[in-house]
Specification:
Length: 363
């Protein structure tokens, strides 16, 4: 049975351990979604991860509705990512870019008042984070069939830009109630065309995006994140197994590098796994590396998931946020820094690059 600290091959990427850094939105880019120099220090500090999955990064202005989040649709954004990936590689790390379209969770204020797009005309619950405070979400308009080729083109362009910017690959964000997840689930997808209704139709957009990106940069540098759980930002499904298991099988057939599953507990954020976990059934149809995520805080807990035969690796989120040298701490059984919620999304270095590494904390 593999150990948490054994190497693993993730498609074209050789990871020296199975402690992956999960994507973590941090809000340190500019208001025009250009990465900032401080991000190089942040990511390089965490280069001992087997693989860093970047914070969610917009594929287009239409798809990005989070203040100070980065994008990858422009030459300026790609150029600003280059010193960040260089810093990670210089520190001995590997990093992939998570590609993000938020769908109905984009507030219209990010797009000059234009309504967001989704699978159907629905509204996300709660309030959006905007540059002028919290505001109610808008009612989305259904994405038209003739718009889908343009959407696929946005994913292809962002994937090309990621490789040009020095990323080792990309991960398609298909989880957490964002656009692709809105298409996957029957609670948010009410379409009656080729992208709605039966599970094989609701899977269609995910499959087409994954095929598009794989053609652009190679399947061995393409990964996907799913959240096969209960309600996630208002997205839910009446029969999760009927859609997520065949979705995983379709991704396996494409030959993606790895699949990450976010399975938060009953008190989780951005989704709660209140139905039986789908990961064992997904494991049965997905033959490539499977990464589990959410609420892992110890080596023993992560190793148990690997020993179960379901997980090949574990991605750590908030634990990595506060512990830049997490693999070393887990290996040594050392104490962990606690993360500070107040600085999760703030600008500047506080709560971003000032969490101490083990040797600093011990000095």
């Amino acid at each position: 049975m593999p150990n948490l600290f054994d190497p693993i091959q993730l498609g074209a990427i050789h990871a020296p351990n199975r402690v992956l850094m999960a994507p973590l939105t941090r809000g340190r880019a500019s208001q025009s979604h250009v990465p900032q120099p401080i991000m190089a220090e942040y990511y390089a500090q965490r280069a001992s991860a087997g693989l860093i999955i970047s914070e969610a990064t917009g594929i287009s202005q239409q798809g990005l509705g989070w203040p100070f989040a980065p994008g990858l649709w422009s030459d300026e954004q790609a150029a600003a990512w280059q010193p960040i990936t260089d810093a990670v590689h210089k520190a001995g790390g590997r990093i992939v870019a998570q590609l993000w379209h938020m769908g109905r969770v984009v507030h219209s204020s990010f797009n000059g008042g234009a309504a967001p797009v989704s699978a159907s005309a629905t509204r996300a619950p709660g309030r959006a984070h905007t540059y002028v405070g919290r505001q109610e979400y808008d009612v989305a308009r259904p994405l038209e069939l003739d718009e889908i080729p343009g959407l696929l083109g946005d994913y292809a362009r962002a994937a090309r830009n990621a490789i040009a910017a020095g990323f080792d690959g990309v991960q398609i964000h298909a989880a957490n109630g964002y656009l692709i997840d809105q298409f996957l689930r029957d609670g948010s997808n009410h379409r009656n065309d080729a992208y709605g209704g039966a599970p094989e139709n609701r899977i269609r957009l995910l499959r087409e995006v994954a095929e598009t990106v794989a053609r652009e940069i190679g399947a061995d540098r393409t990964a996907v994140r799913l959240s096969p759980n209960g309600d996630s930002q208002g997205c839910d499904d009446s029969d999760a197994a009927s859609v997520f298991v065949p979705a995983a099988a379709a991704l396996d057939a494409i030959g993606i590098a790895f699949l990450e599953l976010r399975e938060p507990g009953p008190d989780g954020t951005f989704g709660r796994t209140e139905v039986p976990k789908q990961s064992p059934a997904i494991r049965a149809v997905f033959r490539r590396p499977l990464v589990l995520n959410s609420d892992y805080v110890s080596a023993a807990q992560a190793q148990a998931a690997i020993d179960s035969g379901v997980a090949d690796a574990i991605s750590f989120g908030r634990t990595f946020l506060a512990n830049p040298d997490l693999p070393e701490r887990l290996r040594a059984g050392a104490p962990l820094n606690a993360d500070v919620m107040a600085t999760w999304y703030s600008q500047g270095p506080e709560g971003y690059v000032d969490y101490p590494a083990l040797e600093t904390a011990s000095a």
